[in-house]
Amino acid sequence: MPLNADDFKRLVEILAGWPGWRLERDRLDFMEEALRPSPRAHNLLGQFIPGGNSHNTAVRAVSWLDQFQEDIPDREVTCLLIAALRSKVGRREQADLDAIAGRLNCPVPISGSSLEQENNEEPKAGGTTPPDIEHMPPDPEPDKPDSENQQNSGRQQKPRNWTIPVVLGLLIGSVSCAATVLALVPEAQRGDLFKTLFPIAASSTATATIATPDGVPTIALTASPLPPCPEGTGPNGIKAGNYNPYRLTDDERQWMWQAWGFEGEPNETWGGMPCGTDYGSPDLNFFAMVCERGNVGPEGYVPGGYDPQSLSQSVRQFLWDEFREGGGEGGEIAAVGYGGQRCPSSP
User: Fold this and answer.
1) Are 192 and 102 found together in one domain?
2) What is the pLDDT, as a whole number, of residue 54?
3) What is the pTM of this model?
4) Torsion angle of C-alpha atoms 332, 20, 46, 267, degrees rounded to 10
5) If we measure between CA atoms, which residue out of 275, 175, 261, 259 comes closest to residue 224?
6) How far apart are CA 44 and CA 30, in angstroms?
7) Residue 207 domain boundaries
8) Helices assigned H by DSSP within 222-346
């Protein structure tokens, strides 16, 4: 569930206005703290760029997490940012963060490392303000009855469900048997028998073949490709795609909006629509488009990933602007340790 425009703007304001966001080193330390509870923390931190002014870096961070969406089922990774930031700001900002967290359906309580715990307390009558969870003891009191402790640990006492492993085992066995039967049939007749055993309608969609170790094909899996992108190029040579809206100019966003046949003006959080080849994330889609566009910069460099130590500041600035690390409107000085972005390969 992506942030709406008002929540996006307010979260950026709170983060950019927090004094702990002013220095690059402090930003990195904070993001490490915020993302520590996530099993995807290492991958997420590898994409974070702390350089730039406070506001642009806040926009980039919030947009990046919002585009990433869930790090585990039913939890937006933006919830981790909100949880870590909540304990560092004033009551007014906390109230706004709680409201944003509610609209994102963030797990409660919203408090740092305890984000994944369940809130089993009933709200007090006549009040809607959440309790001050940060100062509550993290462990249950020793005099609590066993029935309550069992309720809190109910998830750990659930019996294992063997249905899925059994079904998967039967499915794999069936595929192996089918492969064995096909291997015994003459090659000239194999296609007709395959169609009889596995009637799959002819389709223009892309197909992938599962093969046994001896190379005998088994079942062809169909995969529906994304629809083709609108043709043509827009401002700055952009092509239609699904991109991180933070990296787009207003003119580029408007051109794509009209290329898809929409009227009026798009919201500033709109970054396009999935089409053509998808590289796994809106950021990677944008990087692939920039690399394919192939603008040539100082000293003959083209967009890509390079050793930062080998680059002059002019080349570094060219790469920074091409990949829009400072946002669609640009105007930001490239970070000293920046070396561009690796061009994604076709998935």
Assistant:
1) no
2) 83
3) 0.42
4) -60
5) 275
6) 13
7) 173-223
8) 250-259, 282-293, 313-322
